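Section 5.1 Outputs to date
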Amino acid sequence: MSSSSEAPRPLVAALDFDNRMIPAHGHMAVDYEQRVDFARLRDYRLSRAMQALEATECGAFLLFDFYNIRYTTQTWIGGALGDKMSRYALLPRDGKPHLWDFGSAAKHHRLFSPWLHEGHSHSGMLGLRGAIHPEVGLMKEAVTTIKGLLHDAGLSGMPVGVDIVEPSFLFEMQRQGIEVVDIQQSMLDARAIKNVDEILLLSQAASMVDGVYQDITDALKPGIRENEIVALASKKLYELGSEQVEAINAVSGERCNPHPHNFTDRLIRPGDQAFFDIIHSYNGYRTCYYRTFSVGSSTPAQHDAYRRAREWMDAAIEKVADGVGTDEVAKLWPTAQEIGIASEMDAFGLQFGHGLGLGLHERPIISRLNSLTHPVEIKAGMVFALETYCPASDGVSAARIEEEVVITANGAQVLTKFPAQDLFVANPY
């Protein structure tokens, strides 16, 4: 981290997103342009987490959520080890997080992550989500160590905030006399407002999907399978520098209505409507990016459904701004019954907004299910996706549109650039 006595460097004019379009830079840092400043990013994220901690009565936050771990320690292990509840971090009030990591990863961080203070990168193992039985004592030993660190820091007796936790670990903390409180809400609030570097990374991630959709439209012809589109998109994303392709929905033909949120080996046929959702991360920052196409030809019913979904989308984009309540946005969208669904719970995720960042679903969550009774104020610096869905009158087709927006002082900027104002007919006959 930079010295607290140093004044933050002013942003260059090209990164003033209130007045200029948000760029999508290449993958490299260069000497001739100001791009992502990772030191600034690390400082910002840790400072936001510390503000959240200092607003509570906790002596420390104990973090198992792997997005919160990355946010506070600036470290990452993805794939098979990222979600096994064996990596954890302790953020005490001195602002110097301790990290327990999978085996040799701790030594790697000691070599390559110098912002972790000396002696604060530890090997750790809690049991791989129960594969090693709690009776072995790994959790007991870990809690004893954490309790000792809190004592040495003068934080004994203060509550410890936890985001997510295995029951066995929670019970061990309580057995050893540690008061545990839930601070996931505090961490989600901390992560809600993005700085310039987070926005640049989100823009770069979206630009990669722009290119994938070009490849999809070129390939979207009768005889290709949904899973082949998923393979094509995954390969392209990794070639472009994706860190993780989390999921890709590929939905076509009669599977469009109702929306199944998955993909199969279905063969795409002439005249099908097809929609896709591409979820991946670049340097940790995620996309959620739907587009809908008709294959070869289209019908009036498909165009009508798309027009309605687009109208709902455009109304939401025009509305979202600093100071607007999420209830005001949700009211612009149709009720579940208006699109032929019995309840808002059954329709959840169809007319929908959700924050984007290190996680796929961050603040704010915008939906008729929750926003009308518990609205959240939208603020400048939030980045979120807006999603609309409209079933077609033919009973099988449906339109699905999603746009990612950044809230600036002058309204919303859209990050998702692949054409979506009108229904795109791929490879017309």
